[in-house]
C-alpha cells in the first residue's frame, strides 16, 4: 500500500519536473480536486477535474518549478483510500501537501506554502537575539528603540502595510507580518485594542470553543475557559498587541485612500490631527461582515420607542418589564433576545426566514473533533488541525457536512421537534448541509444554541415566523400580513453588508464595484449566487484592485489565513515573482 | 536490561506496600541519593545513603502509602546505568519518579508530586466552561463577576493566601494557586505589575535565555527574543496578570503581619487607606535577595558626589565624562560598569574578591542543553526540562558542574587569560564548580559575560582588585591599602541581605531569627556554612514559622517551585494530612 503511495509521489514529482502536464494529470481521477494555497497559483484556488488541473498546471508550473516531493508523515489508510502528508519546495517556498489516492490515482490534492525559503518567519531558532552581547557606546535600549520606532512611524518612516481594523483579523495579520519583517500599522477606531469585542452586547460569549479560537504564535493558556466572554477576549487581544509589540494607532480612522499608480495614499484621522500615510499595501480587516445594513422600514422615524440595529445593542437591563421585539432569527437575534429575556423584558422574535440551529454541545461532540482536548491528546494541535481542515476542498466538505447534519438531526430529534412546535422555522440549508455551510455561503441564517432555543421552545420568548416588517408605527411594527406587534424596543438584527462596501466609503464606489461582494462560495443558494467558485470570494487573495486585500473571519479563519495574506505581501515586498493564476484582472484603484 | 528495571520497580513497589523498609532500602546502593519533592516528605528533601533512606521511609511511608509504580517512558541506557521515568500514586497525589540503576540497584531516585488526586489543576480537560449554556435571569457576566470579586476581596471576602511581592515569583505562584482554586492576593508596592523589572537599571537585559525563562501555563511566543530586555519582561508580567485574571493590589505595601494562633492578620497600606487582611497563609515573594545591604563605609555622608546602592542605579547618561567607581564585581557591578562606560563615563571597578565569569555564548552552548531549540527539537519542552533538571540531587549536580567548568576553562582559555591579565581576579568557586553553584550557594560572586569583560580585559574599564573600601572622603574612596580613588559617582554593588530579613521588618526580628537565613545548600564555602543540607534553605518548603513561606528565585526557579508551594498550600487548605518530614520544628510567629 505504501509502495503505491511512494510510486505516485515519484511519478508526480518526475512528471512535474519534466513539465509533462499530461502525465501529471493522468495521475488524478477524472473528478479529482486540487486545492492550492499560494504554492502553485499565488492564489487561493480549488480546481476539479483533469482538464482544470491541466489548465492550472499549464499556467503555473513554469513559475512554481516544484521539486523534492517526499513523504512527511506516516501514510494513513481508510477503506480503499490512502493518504499522506508530503513536503516539497517551489522556486520560492517550502510547501506542504496532502494527497489522497484511490486505486493508485489522486482523488484529492492539497498544496500550500509553509514558508518562503529565503525569508522564513523569525521564530524559534531564528528568533531575534534581543540584545547585542557587547558594549556599544550610546546604544538604544529596547524601550528607547521602540519609542523611536513609534514616533517615526507614519512620519519619517512609512509602514509597508496599512491594516484597517484592529480586531482579531487585523491583529493576527500584523503579528504574522511582524515575524516576516514587514512593517505594518493597524488603524483602529476604538481607544483600546480589543474594544471591537468589548463594545458588543453585554452578555456575549464566544460561541466557538477555545481550541478553535487561538491566535497565531501565542495560544491561550490551558486554564482558558472553553467559551470566552467578550471582555476577556478583548483583554486578550489587548495583551496580545503588547506581547507581540505590534504597531497600532488607536482612536484613529481611515477616511480615504487613493491609488497613486505606485502605492497608496491613506488619510488617517487621529485624535491629534490628520496624517496621510503612503503604504504599498492596504488591507481591509474591518470585520467578516461589512457595515451594518441600514434600517429602511417605512415609518421608522415615527417610532416612539427605541429602534436600533443589533450592532448598537448593549444591554437589556434598561428594558425590564417592557415589550421588546427582535427582528431576525440568526445568532445576534437569539443572543439579543436571550439577553433581553434575562433582563426581564417581554420578548418577541420576528423570524422572516428559516434558521439553522444546532446545540452547542452537539457541535462540540460532533463538529469540533479536530479542535478539542481529544485531538490534542492525539497530537493534533491547532496548527495541525488547521491544515487538516484546509486540506478538504469545499465541495467535499459540503458533502461531509450533509452527512454530519443527517446524524445531528437524529441525535437531537426531540430538541428540533420541540423547537418546531413553537412555530420557529428550522432549516439546514437548501441542500441540508447545515450551519457551517451557511456561515461560508452567506454568513447568515444560523445559531449555535447556547440557551435561547429553550426559551423559544418553552414559549418564554415569543416567535412570529414567516413574516417580515412592512412598516413601523408610533407604538410598534406592522408585519407583512398586516398583523401589528406593539413594542417599546425594536432591535433590528438584519445583518451586515458585504465587506466590499467598506471599500466604497474609503476608496471609491467604482473600486468596490470592481471587486464585487466578498465571502460566499458560489453555491447557487439564495444569497450566494453561482457559478461555483469553490473558495470564498475576494478573501485573503488578490482582488480586482491591485494591492488591496480583505482579511477577516472568525478567530479560526483569521488565524489560519493571516499566514497567507502575510506571505503574499512579503513575497511582493521581496520582489519574488508572484504570477497570480485564476484571479481577477487587476487594476489600480 | 529493561527486565532489570522492571524487576527493580516491582521489588520496590512491593517492599513499600508491605512496609518492608529493610527490603526497600536494600534496593539502593550504599551511597544512593533520593530527592523528594513533597510526595513522601511533604517537604523538599534529599537524603543520601541507606541509613538516611531507611530513616526517611520510617518517617513517611505510613502517610504516603505509595502504590501503582509503573514505567512512564522508555528506559534509557548510559554506560552501566539504566534510567526511566516512572509514575506512582500516594494516598493524596499522583506522582512522578525517575530512577537510575547500576548493577540492579538504585543510585539516584527522584520522587515528586505532580497533582493532588482529588484536586487537580483546572487545566485542559478540566478548564472552566466560561459560561453556563442556558438562559438565567439576572445573571452576572464575566466582567461583572470579576468586578464584584475584586470589590469584595479583602473586605467581605478574605484571600486564603497573601503573597508579598508581585515580581515573577509572586505572579507565578498566584497563577498556580488560581488553577488550584485557592484564593490568593498579591500585594505589590509598585503601581504596575512588572515594575520590579522596569525599575531596574536602564540597560538591563535578562542574562538567561528565553527557553529557561517561561512563566507557568503561558510560554513566551516563538518570536520572543533570546534575551529579554527588562521593560519587555515587565510588560509581559503585566499582560500575564491580566490574562490569568490574578488578583493584585498595586501601590500597596505590607506594613505588618501578626499570627493570631489560627491565621494571620496582615496590615496593608493602600493608596486609599489601610486594610487588615486575615489570610491563612503568608508568602514572602520579595525577591531572591532580601533588602539591599546598607552602605556602611565610614565617611559616606561626607561624599560630595553621588553615592548609591546598585538597586537605586538607573541610567548612566547623566555621568558622561565623569569619574564613576563601581564597588563590587558580580553581575550588577558588571552591568552598571558597562552601562556607565556606554554612557561615556570613566569607570573603575573595585573588586574585593574573585568573581566567576563565564561567557554567555559558552553557557548557551554548554550549560543550557536542556533549555534550547535543540532540546525542543528532541521533544524536551520546558516542563520536561524542569523535571529532568530537578531529578539530579545537588551533590551530583555539583560534581557535574565541576566537569563542565573544567571544559569551559579549556574552551575559553584565551578569554580567561586576557581577563586575568587586566588584574581582574577570577575564580570558579572554592571547589571549581563554577557559576551556577555560586548562584545556589551564595547568590553572589558571578557574572555571565554579556560584554563587560571585554571592556575590562581591554582596560576600557579599570580594575583595582583585592581591595575593599576603607572609608569615603569628600572626593572619593580610600581603599584598604590606603590608595585613594577619586570619584564623582560611587555605585555600591554590595549585594543584598538574606530574604529572611524581610520577615524581620514585617513580622518580627524574633520570627526572622527563628527561620534563619534563606538560600544556600550548606556547602561549607564562605557565605554558605555547613553542614550539608542538599536543598536551598527555607525556600519553597515549611519554615520554622507556621504558615509562612518563601518563594522566589530567577524565572526558572519561580516557575518550577511555584507548583510545589501552591500544592503544599492547597493540600493544607483541603485538610489533606501533610506531615512534614525532615523539616524544622514549627511554631506560630
Structure keywords:
homodimer, 589 residues, alpha/beta, 18 helices, 25 strands
What does this structure look like?
The structure is a homodimer of 589-residue chains. With 589 residues, chain A is an alpha/beta fold. Chain A contains 18 helices and 25 strands. In chain A, strands 1, 2, 3, 4, 5, 6 and 7 form a seven-stranded mixed sheet that branches. A five-stranded parallel sheet of chain A has the order 10-9-8-14-25, sandwiched between helices. In chain A, strands 15-24-16-17-20 form a five-stranded parallel sheet, with helices on one face. In chain A, strand 5 (81-89) and strand 6 (93-102) form a beta hairpin. The longest helix of chain A is centred in the last third of the chain and has 19 residues, at 555-573. The interface between A and B is large, with 65 and 65 residues.
Largest sheet of chain A: 7 strands, mixed
Largest interface: A-B, 65 and 65 residues
Alpha-beta content class of chain A: alpha/beta
Quaternary structure annotation: homodimer
Structure summarized in a few sentences:
With 589 residues, chain A is an alpha/beta fold.
Write the SSE topology.
Two copies of one chain form a homodimer.
Chain A lengths: L1 H17 L2 H5 L2 E10 L6 E5 L1 H15 L2 E5 L4 E3 L2 E9 L3 E10 L2 E12 L25 H11 L8 E4 L3 H12 L4 E4 L7 H4 L31 H14 L4 E2 L3 E7 L4 E7 L2 E5 L3 E4 L21 E4 L13 E5 L3 H12 L3 E6 L4 E4 H7 L6 H5 L4 H9 L3 H18 L1 H9 L13 H7 L4 E4 L2 H6 L4 E4 L3 E5 L2 E4 L4 E3 L2 E4 L7 H7 L2 H7 L32 E3 L4 H19 L16
Amino acid at each position: 500500500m505504501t509502495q503505491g503511495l511512494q510510486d505516485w509521489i515519484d511519478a508526480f514529482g518526475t512528471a512535474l519536473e519534466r513539465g509533462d502536464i499530461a502525465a501529471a494529470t493522468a495521475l488524478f481521477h477524472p473528478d479529482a480536486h486540487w486545492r492550492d494555497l499560494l504554492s502553485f497559483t499565488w492564489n487561493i484556488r480549488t480546481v476539479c477535474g483533469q482538464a482544470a488541473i491541466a489548465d492550472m498546471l499549464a499556467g503555473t508550473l513554469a513559475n512554481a518549478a516544484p521539486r523534492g516531493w517526499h513523504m512527511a508523515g506516516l501514510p494513513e489508510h481508510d477503506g480503499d483510500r490512502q493518504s499522506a502528508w508530503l513536503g516539497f519546495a517551489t522556486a520560492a517556498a517550502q510547501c506542504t501537501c496532502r494527497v489522497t489516492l484511490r486505486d493508485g490515482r489522486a482523488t484529492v490534492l492539497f498544496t500550500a506554502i509553509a514558508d518562503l525559503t529565503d525569508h522564513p518567519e523569525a521564530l524559534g531558532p531564528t528568533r531575534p537575539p534581543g540584545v547585542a552581547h557587547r558594549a556599544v557606546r550610546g546604544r538604544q535600549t529596547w524601550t528607547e528603540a521602540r519609542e523611536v520606532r513609534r514616533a517615526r512611524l507614519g512620519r519619517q518612516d512609512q509602514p509597508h502595510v496599512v491594516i484597517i481594523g484592529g480586531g482579531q483579523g487585523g491583529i493576527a495579520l500584523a503579528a504574522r507580518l511582524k515575524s516576516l519583517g514587514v512593517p505594518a500599522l493597524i488603524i483602529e477606531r476604538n481607544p483600546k485594542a480589543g474594544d471591537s469585542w468589548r463594545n458588543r452586547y453585554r452578555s456575549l460569549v464566544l460561541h466557538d470553543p477555545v481550541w478553535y479560537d487561538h491566535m497565531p504564535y501565542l495560544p491561550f493558556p490551558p486554564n482558558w475557559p472553553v467559551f470566552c466572554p467578550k471582555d476577556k477576549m478583548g483583554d486578550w487581544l489587548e495583551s496580545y498587541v503588547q506581547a507581540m509589540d505590534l504597531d497600532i494607532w488607536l482612536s484613529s480612522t481611515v477616511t480615504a485612500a487613493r491609488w497613486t499608480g505606485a502605492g497608496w495614499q491613506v488619510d488617517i484621522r487621529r485624535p491629534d490631527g490628520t496624517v496621510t500615510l503612503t503604504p504599498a499595501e492596504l488591507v481591509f480587516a474591518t470585520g467578516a461582515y461589512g457595515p451594518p445594513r441600514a434600517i429602511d422600514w417605512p415609518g421608522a422615524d415615527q417610532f416612539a420607542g427605541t429602534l436600533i440595529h443589533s450592532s448598537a445593542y448593549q444591554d437589556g437591563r434598561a428594558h425590564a418589564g417592557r415589550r421588546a421585539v427582535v427582528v431576525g432569527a440568526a445568532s445576534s437575534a437569539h443572543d439579543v433576545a436571550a439577553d433581553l429575556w434575562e433582563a426581564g423584558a417581554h420578548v418577541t422574535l420576528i423570524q422572516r426566514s428559516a434558521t439553522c440551529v444546532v446545540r452547542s454541545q452537539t457541535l462540540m461532540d460532533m463538529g469540533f473533533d479536530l479542535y478539542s482536548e481529544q485531538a490534542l491528546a492525539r497530537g493534533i494541535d491547532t496548527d495541525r488541525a488547521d491544515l487538516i481542515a484546509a486540506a478538504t476542498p469545499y465541495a467535499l466538505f459540503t458533502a461531509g457536512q450533509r452527512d454530519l447534519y443527517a446524524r445531528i438531526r437524529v441525535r437531537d430529534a426531540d430538541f428540533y421537534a420541540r423547537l418546531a412546535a413553537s412555530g420557529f422555522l428550522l432549516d439546514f440549508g437548501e441542500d441540508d448541509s447545515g450551519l457551517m455551510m451557511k456561515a461560508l455561503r452567506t454568513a447568515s441564517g444560523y445559531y449555535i444554541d447556547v440557551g435561547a432555543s429553550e426559551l423559544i421552545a418553552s414559549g418564554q420568548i415569543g416567535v412570529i415566523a414567516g413574516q417580515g416588517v412592512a412598516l413601523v408605527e408610533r407604538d410598534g411594527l406592522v408585519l407583512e400580513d398586516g398583523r401589528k406587534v406593539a413594542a417599546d424596543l425594536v432591535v433590528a438584527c438584519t445583518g451586515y453588508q458585504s465587506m466590499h462596501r467598506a471599500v466604497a466609503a474609503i476608496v471609491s464606489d467604482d473600486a468596490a464595484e470592481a471587486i464585487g461582494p466578498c465571502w460566499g462560495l458560489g453555491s447557487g443558494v439564495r444569497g450566494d449566487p453561482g457559478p461555483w467558485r469553490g473558495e470564498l470570494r475576494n478573501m485573503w487573495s488578490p482582488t480586482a484592485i491591485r494591492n488591496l486585500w480583505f482579511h477577516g473571519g472568525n478567530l479560526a479563519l483569521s488565524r489560519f489565513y493571516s499566514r497567507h495574506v502575510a506571505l503574499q505581501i512579503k513575497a511582493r515586498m521581496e520582489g519574488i515573482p508572484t504570477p497570480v493564476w485564476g484571479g481577477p484582472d487587476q487594476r489600480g484603484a
